[in-house]
UniProtKB/TrEMBL annotation, chains A, B, C, D:
<dbReference type="InterPro" id="IPR042173">
    <property type="entry name" value="RNase_J_2"/>
</dbReference>
<keyword id="KW-0694">RNA-binding</keyword>
<dbReference type="InterPro" id="IPR055132">
    <property type="entry name" value="RNase_J_b_CASP"/>
</dbReference>
<dbReference type="GO" id="GO:0003723">
    <property type="term" value="F:RNA binding"/>
</dbReference>
<dbReference type="Pfam" id="PF07521">
    <property type="entry name" value="RMMBL"/>
</dbReference>
<dbReference type="InterPro" id="IPR030879">
    <property type="entry name" value="RNase_J_arc"/>
</dbReference>
<keyword id="KW-0269">Exonuclease</keyword>
<comment type="subunit">
    <text>Homodimer.</text>
</comment>
<comment type="similarity">
    <text>Belongs to the metallo-beta-lactamase superfamily. RNA-metabolizing metallo-beta-lactamase-like family. Archaeal RNase J subfamily.</text>
</comment>
<keyword id="KW-0378">Hydrolase</keyword>
<dbReference type="InterPro" id="IPR011108">
    <property type="entry name" value="RMMBL"/>
</dbReference>
<feature type="binding site">
    <location>
        <position position="84"/>
    </location>
    <ligand>
        <name>Zn(2+) 1</name>
    </ligand>
</feature>
<feature type="binding site">
    <location>
        <position position="174"/>
    </location>
    <ligand>
        <name>Zn(2+) 1</name>
    </ligand>
</feature>
<dbReference type="GO" id="GO:0005737">
    <property type="term" value="C:cytoplasm"/>
</dbReference>
<keyword id="KW-0862">Zinc</keyword>
<dbReference type="Pfam" id="PF22505">
    <property type="entry name" value="RNase_J_b_CASP"/>
</dbReference>
<feature type="binding site">
    <location>
        <position position="152"/>
    </location>
    <ligand>
        <name>Zn(2+) 1</name>
    </ligand>
</feature>
């Protein structure tokens, strides 16, 4: 049977818990194993690291990979394209079921290793294979995976290409076509165009922002906006706190650079800040100037905040967790008055992040901002650009790769619909060359 | 009677038709005389340049200055802060009623002169006084006006300060605190702080974006976004058309610079493009490279579009009117197929503008974009930053100028409300030190 | 080839221009031939009744039935389910291409006859067959159409069922499950359940409101709201004008009844008011009390409005066209001051209609309401309930009819997506038993 | 000093924590003492009944009545207009500071008594005076309070009028002009018109829905919609659960009536259901048929739910708490699977309530609905009409009462702004006859 199967395991009906399986003859490659955090959030007392897979599947929090039982073939590899939790977060719960290595870029591999170590329920012993962007790896005699550099809101992201006897399958989840990502590699357009020229059987692509018109602004824009907010003020002595995605190393690097221009010491606080930043540092993705301070543990954080209060807020630039109002994060604790840091009238809270569009995070953010404002803080919101391609970036990638078939993934029906309409503009036909899959469905494609 | 009167003539209940009068003893200075275009738009057949003032007042299109009859005193000057129509557009209809000079910066003066010349109903013979930003002018023995540089979305904008025996009145309509406006002067913070130290009796301020959190992004951001859209593509040969505000000289200048990087010839098209650009050029605000082409008349525009079709779209970057879908604008004519320019699949239409939030412009834009898309065009929307201060810019200006009283202007109740809440954070009290005026009301302030 | 083909001709990518063809062996039945008015609206000078089909197809205004050339078989009938223009409006442009009768209920037939008579470009000579709800008609030896009563926002609406040798095809566009439609028949649940028990091969269904939660309120609710607005006031002497859909006979009937309670004479004004009302009257769907006045021609309308001004607004209840702000409609002319009717402060304008969600109608409505308010009118908006099934009505119909296959139609991708998610809850599977078609596509279903 | 002072204590900047003081010479009457629940919600561990007033004031949860220290005069009475918590919820925390009786209608008095009994921090010994709608009470020699019947979403609501030597002050918080409230009295228009004829000095009015066009639908509409949802289905045997405001006695009564038509036993569950319903029953506001069951305690509720599962869902109509997704409410416990009630596919959850527009309740509702849907429930949302006057009801009341001065209360700046614009249409002038107060401000009005 000379055809390739695309199994939509998770992330086709929703944002989060991404997982796709590609079936080539009797061999299978799994792409991503993510978690859907808002499904965890609605269960107040859920302790993920102690929960069983089946419980999490029932909650809709991780991909329902029980459907894999009905797929003929053996899983030969699990490939992860970047280190966000909606791509690697289910590994501790699901990977041990497969006798297969986990292949990802070095930074992603480091994060996966941490995930596995923090897991309390399952032992995950799959070999971890760190494959650099630009390199290829022979999974089996007939399947080779190639990693192509692509910017996203986390470093060391790639588009994965499975080269098979029946043609190539491109997996572009997630990406932006940022020619100036400030840190890390630009899109490898040569490799993508080369793929297009050689012929691609199918492309599976994220659709998060496919309804947004135009082109995702470059990370350079976020950096310039941050610089403008942090440096562009006559009230340069006030307290300023930045909060952003701990995993967004390019953003953290921009903050370090701007802090230097401000003459302030950047102080990173929070467990995840420490985790992501140190991993990036150890792998050489980021240089940390000598004066940078990093505190992961609560007592160290509080000590540092006390020092800032004593020595003067104008000397420091705290960079903290809490941009989504996560309970227990540093910024929430500051807003609750649970740390030595006193928010005073005119202090600035800079959210270098969007609000994740879920009612749960909206509520958390609202509570956080309300408390901060009641203490006199000034809010700078959305000093941020997205890491996901807008409609015209999708247009460009699609025309560059020219796949025979394209499958929207990593989104809900609204996002897929926007993608389909764009693909139709480019000549694709729904049901023939652009395919709408739902979680649990399989699409077979002939070369 | 040692007090100053602030007369809210227009623009206090709405966006557009701004006009404020400041009464000092028996002398009056008028600040701005604008038009409200969406009130004209809802009357399909209205020909403004032939209409009488009273008719336009009844339509709510220009300020109802008949209330000035009840104000004791003589108008000694009309001061305009910048050249947008909501600040100067009613001059042809109202200025002749006052025996007073019109004082504005050189670029604004040039635009006012054009307005007066185009008027068909009234003769306006008021002397035009061009006063440079940074300079002062003695209106009467007791009133001097000072112009302080401030960036906005049109060059040569100022904050006007009336120095009077009873104290200073600051008129900050419109402004952004852009430290890198790409063209023209930065905010003159020294002058503003000096005012604050000396003491200011009252500040009248725009409120357009006072509900938006944070800080207005710099014009530099718009330039970088434009550069990214125009240069950051592998499909560099396709047709590209930019449309933006003809009066936004900084933006036009950015486009010229980027066109050069692209190796394309910038071609400005449309009557207002020619008008604003030539005035800026003549006054030395902008350098036009030799290869720039500018066409105002319809037949010249069509000839140029034909040339572009013949010689190759990839050689030119047309910059045209029509960003709001205005009937008769160049882009609308292109979308209707009424020009020699053929839109082909993949051609890019770059809207370097927001959509003015009125149902009429939304409908025009929708019709325009629908027609362009049906011809295969790709839309890049909102490659733009605002020219109006966001909430934290207002916070900063307010704390810098420290007026005894602050009066929100240039907006509707929702905008004023957002401003009031910000001013309350800064210690102002509604009805005591921050005042909510409605069109037609007068506020008297004692020093 | 024992299968049935469903051809999505129009209305699958959008609201409006509905047309579906069902292929049974070598025989074809066309279901609906509608027009998409917002595509006409964006072309200001379009005169539909003089335009050629191909031009209208290119504008996206009528279904692109040129794809029918590629479908094997002969069209044996055109079946229309109700008299709205998005279901019958393209008949004057397309029906003459088919040598087939047009089958519809008596009221729909009357409206189709009017459409054909008003057409200036084409001669349409297809036989018109008036088939009563509840009756069946043998189209060919193998195909019989059955009409099942169903409420909608126009009287004499039906669900059409094609009984064929390979199974039944149900066409449920448009409907609501209103058990108290105030006029006309309730849903024929017995017939629908009987279909379900016998087995249905496929159901094609509208999806307009499938994203709205719950159940469409009954027309009774609209009647009660109208009564409350018209009778529930202490200021019972003021001028009141109602505007609503001229084709919504149940609503017009409610107004007549309420006018009687108010002691006012109902006066219907506008060409379409006269057209739809008289047709309903002639066919016996509505009783008109003796005092009802109806004026279609402009000069008669103006004369009547003059009489109302003379005799007293409190004696009359004008019911006029213009609920969407249509240029030239009676209410727009009143708002423009182009009729003898003087709007005074406190007069009430009751919109017994929603705003059709297109930027063009939003702009028209905004202009209309603004002008009315400037004259002192008070606006009562959205005194209305929808004629389209909400999500749970769809759930109920789907479970009653139990088709093997269901095909969302009459909507855009967002509407279809909401339907698909509901159908999935009911056990349907995308691509297997619930099918997403795009304009121009064909689905073949085996019994 | 012949003037009246209006002190805006709370509820002028926000929804919730309403409190106004009226100063007449050296005597003061307090109107309402409410709590703002969303300020409590953002502090997860807040236990209100054990918290001190000053702490709650700092949180913005109750009115900051410390400003009363600066008001000359003695508080002679606390008057509450109805029993919602945003009007009576702060009594347990604040009333004991005033040596004054609490005057309210009988039902409101019963609820206040419960509030006081549940309080754990303070002892409140103020005399409770139950005054019937339509009656008057002489507070002091110079001040008499009159209660005028007015419908709202809780029974026994009134407009309070203070008759003083300097004129009357009308307090219309909250109300709707419902002529068919299904239970309880209609608006007493005669009394209101009589007030208008005699002359009213000032009216303080709620503004919640002043931005919504038209007229609030009557409670009759909600009843009809509920009947349609509950009775209008062919799947009449499925499980159905209704959730609504426990304090909305008219709605509860409607449900009882409809349950009878359905042949189901209404079972009210939840502590607040029991509390409000029993109080209404004891005071004779509602007749409870013999078969009605009411369970307040958790173990009784669970027992009843078990019985329903055993005997058949089709026999019962549970009416439960949880319409806003409140943690610990019955519906939330059902959704969590913490009760014996098993939600099955097709069971109906009818929310006879709007979603309170706060991010916290939106998150709670989202979590609740998601969990219910995951168990197969069908959601009927917003089977509800508001209890707050829309714009035209405000127009009508204002023109009926014709106060010299009107003061928007009970809302935020956006709501007040909408009211002001309406009042301007009616001839009022901001700052002269319509006054915008902020929490903590005092307005003095001369007769």
């Amino acid at each position: 049977m000379e055809e390739i199967g695309i199994v939509a395991v998770g992330g086709y009906n929703e944002m989060g818990r991404n997982m796709t399986a590609v079936v080539v003859g009797d061999e299978i490659v799994i792409l991503d194993m993510g978690i859907r955090l808002d499904r965890v959030q609605i269960h107040e007392d859920a302790e993920i690291d102690r929960m069983h897979s089946l419980e999490l599947i029932e909650m809709g929090a991780i991909p329902d990979d029980t459907i894999m039982r009905d797929i003929n073939g053996t899983v030969r590899a699990i490939v992860c394209t970047h280190g966000h939790l909606d791509h690697i977060g289910a590994i501790p719960k699901l990977a041990h079921r497969y006798n297969a290595p986990i292949i990802s870029t070095p930074y992603t591999t480091a994060l996966i290793r941490q995930q596995i170590e923090e897991e309390k329920k399952f032992k995950v012993n799959n070999p971890l294979v760190a494959l650099k962007a630009g390199d290829s790896y022979e999974i089996t005699d007939s399947i080779t995976v190639e990693f192509i550099s692509i910017p996203h809101s986390i470093i060391d992201s790639v588009i994965a290409v499975l080269h098979t006897p029946y043609g190539s399958v491109v997996y572009a989840c997630d990406f932006k076509l940022d020619r100036a990502p400030t840190i890390g590699a630009s899109p490898n357009f040569n490799a993508l165009k080369k793929l297009g020229r050689k012929g691609v059987l199918a492309m599976i692509t994220e659709t998060t922002n496919s309804a947004r018109s135009g082109k995702t602004p470059s990370e350079t824009i976020a950096k310039e906006m941050l610089r403008d907010v942090l440096l562009g003020t006559e009230e340069s002595h006030v307290g300023m706190i930045v909060t952003t995605f701990a995993s967004h190393i390019a953003r953290l690097n921009a903050i370090i650079e701007i802090a230097e221009e401000m003459g302030r010491v950047p102080v990173f606080m929070g467990r995840s800040m420490e985790k992501y930043l140190m991993a990036a540092h150890e792998l050489g993705f980021i240089n940390l100037p000598k004066n940078v301070e990093i505190y992961g543990q609560r007592k160290d954080v509080d000590k540092a905040l006390k020092k800032i209060m004593t020595e003067g807020k104008e000397k420091y630039l705290p960079v903290v967790t809490g941009h989504q109002g996560e309970p227990g994060s540093i910024l929430v604790r500051i807003a609750n008055g649970e740390t030595p840091f006193q928010v005073e009238s005119g202090d600035r809270m800079i959210f270098s992040a969007n609000i994740i569009p879920s009612p749960m995070t909206r509520a958390n953010r609202y509570a956080l901002e309300t408390k901060l404002k009641m203490r006199g803080a000034r809010i700078y919101d959305d000093v941020h650009v997205s890491g996901h391609a807008y409609r015209e970036d999708h247009w460009e990638l699609l025309r560059m790769v020219q796949p025979n078939h394209v499958i929207p993934a990593h989104g809900d029906l609204a996002m897929h619909s926007a993608y389909i309409e764009m693909a139709e503009d480019a000549g694709y036909v729904l049901g023939e060359t652009v395919h709408l899959l739902r979680n649990g469905e399989v699409l077979f494609i002939e070369p």
